[in-house]
Amino acid sequence: MNVEVHKYGGTSIDCVEKIKTIALRTLRYQAQHKVSVVLVLSAMGQQTDALLAEARSIAEEPDPAALDVLLATGEQRSCALMILALQSHHIAARFFSGEQAGLGTDACFGQARVESVNIQGIQSALKAGIIPVVAGYQGAAPNGQVTTLGRGGSDLSAVILANALDAPCLIYTDVEGIYTADPVLIRTARRLDSIHIDDMLKFSELGAQVLSPASVRYAKNNDVNVSVHAGHQAQSLGTQLTFESSDVSVSHCLGVIIDPEVTEITLTYVPDSERLQHLLRRFKTHGIVVDLLGTQIYSGADRRWVMTIPNVQLSWCLMQFKSEGCVCLLRSELARVSLVGGEVQSIISLAQSMLTQQAIFPIRSLTTSKRLTVLVRSEQAVSLALCWHRGLCGVDVFQSISDANVAYVES
Ligand code: ADP
Ligand code: ASP
Ligand code: MG
Fold first, then answer.
1. 116 and 216 part of one domain
2. Structural domain count of the chain
3. Is the CB of 42 under 6 A from ligand 2?
4. Which of 22, 169, 194, 375 could form a disulfide with 162 if both were Cys (CB 3.0 to 4.6 A apart)?
5. pTM
6. Would you say the CB of residue 74 lies under 6 angstroms from ligand 2?
7. pLDDT digits over 137-157, tens only?
């Protein structure tokens, strides 16, 4: 049996009409491509944020286990409506919660790690000609309690199930694939037909929301066939994630990535630095994107740790720091802007001159052979990304440098 996993994100199913359209489309797709589809759904629109706000209107720091029960209902509602839509076409469909889909996790509420996968239930449904409709973003702890996998976690649910079913994973979203920059913010961004999995991982870790970092990491480690398509188009070329390293060395800058909402955390008091190191390792295993990590020496032996964390992961991280007795100082309304590519080193000085030209003086920056990341004030992010994208991205880098130099001299 040919099976495919199709994941729809919140924006693609933000109203009942869209759910009805996708139900019909899935039926047509199955008939046309002679495949059985497993649907993995996110919560409708911004429902997860709304549920989170509801919980916080009662408790500033909601109990993580209760919160997960609440958040998981967002995805369950999408699934119930999708099943009704499929049934209205006389097609059998069955609901799978995270637990029923066989995603066993640890008990780390809000940021759970998937530890076991059992797809027997889904396989039986497929064999019986029933469409499995799976609630993304959730699993079950060893004692059966509902857990969530961290924000954007439906991508991970889909990739994990695709791997277990040995099936391709098609991620349907509100843009037509992976672009050289966020196409919603940078109109001139270009869709890439394909992107190497390592580059995609960098894009995701640096803030390209379209695929969660954990899902890309999982796909990379397990060779999962993942592609990204437009949820609102019947036919979409999309972008294929590839594993073959290209023979042609990438001599250009592949993309400019904005992470629009990050917070800088300074740990002004750390009771035990070994335990802190352990905690930071734990963050990594739970998919927390800690970036621009460093230490600052204050007077005497006073050493402070500094790092940035995406806002959506902040409250979970703060809880962990608090439980270790750390004292945190927060600086918000910041964004990360990154240049990503094969030869970023060769364009650093040009990228920096563009910063100066825009009177942007980064709060902090990091350069490696494959990326340049700067931490700036939120309101500076888009104009910087536009400028870098226009001057440095996509064209052969040396051509780009000469063009950009001309523009620089003229202005
Ligand atoms: P979904 O609801 O489908 O999960 P998300 O909002 O999580 O969708 O991700 C899709 C969004 O990712 C797009 O609307 C786009 O604004 C953003 N995005 C950021 N960087 C990129 C990029 N390089 N390519 C495509 N989309 C991007
Ligand atoms: N609904 C969850 C979120 O908003 C999971 C997802 O969309 O992938 O983060
Ligand atoms: Mg998403």
1. yes
2. 2
3. yes
4. 169
5. 0.93
6. yes
7. 999 999 999 999 999 999 999
